[in-house]
Amino acid sequence: MSKSDDLAALIQRRAGAEPPEYGLILGSGLGHLADSLDDGVAIEYGDLPGFPHAGVSGHVPKLVIGTLEGRRVAVFGGRAHYYEEGRADAMRLPLEVLASLGCKRVILTNAAGAVRGDLEPGGLMMLNDHIAFSGANPLIGETDDARFVPMGDAHDPEMRAALSAAAQAEGIALPEGVYGWFSGPSFETPAEIRAAKVLGMDAVGMSTVPEIILARFLGLRVAAVSVLTNMAAGLSDEAISHDHTKAMAPAGAAKFEKILRRFLRDGGA
Ligand code: HPA
After folding, report:
1. Is 128 a catalytic residue?
2. Which region holds residue 130: left if phi is over 0, alpha if psi is between -120 and 50, else beta?
3. Is the peptide bond between 185 and the residue preceding it cis, with omega within 30 degrees of 0?
4. 135: left (phi over 0), alpha (psi -120 to 50) or beta
5. Mean pLDDT in residue range 78-97
6. What is the pLDDT of residues 155-166, one digit of tens each?
7. Residue 239 pLDDT
8. Is 178 in the pocket of ligand 1 (CB under 6 A)?
9. Whose CA is nearest to atom 6 of ligand 1?
10. Whose CA is closest to 88, among 215, 220, 214, 210?
11. Which of 64, 129, 171, 268 is the most buried (most CB within 10 A)?
């Protein structure tokens, strides 16, 4: 058995064997959702050998499996980032475990800075594409031909359509856009953000893209939503900081939770 199968067996002994319908990975300041599940069984990452530390403040390093709006979900309360140890595949094992649990779909969230003028701090943006501007890739070193993952439809059209419909039903704006992945942990410079704009990035952040690549590699369908916590560097007078990200994220997270609940209630995708 692979390591992920072993961990999946451990998780199933504690949380039951029924496969989760959705996996969720929560970004900075979005961890609250992990505590909102009915009958949630929580397992600390520390109890899952090989799981990342995920110790960035604002993240909750635990896996919670339970029910949300009548659907079984597996919520990862925190992620590990490329900038923590220089490993773009830091979230590979959690995603492999999700696949070993029999889960086929994953929804990723993150905090991001808005680049496009019509996007607002406190609001959301659903990713319709991305640019891996960090230059890293979580599949470097992989030897199987499966590493040549097509990315043309990486952001699942059906999941996006259902999330859009749920947002509309809730009266919450969910514009779509292109997410640019910078390595972090320093924020971008104003010149980098001007370049990002020219390159077609609508929002920028330090996560998520490696997880999208890994999810597709593992055959999981994936959609991702950014919580916009600030205008990106140079676009507003407001100072950018991780404290600000953590303070702003809950407003957007509350909107995301409403959309997610409606999406699940209405049958998902
Ligand atoms: N840049 C990168 N990551 C971020 C930002 C930002 O402006 N805001 C929140 N996460």
Report:
1. no
2. beta
3. yes
4. left
5. 95
6. 999 999 999 999
7. 87
8. no
9. 113
10. 210
11. 64
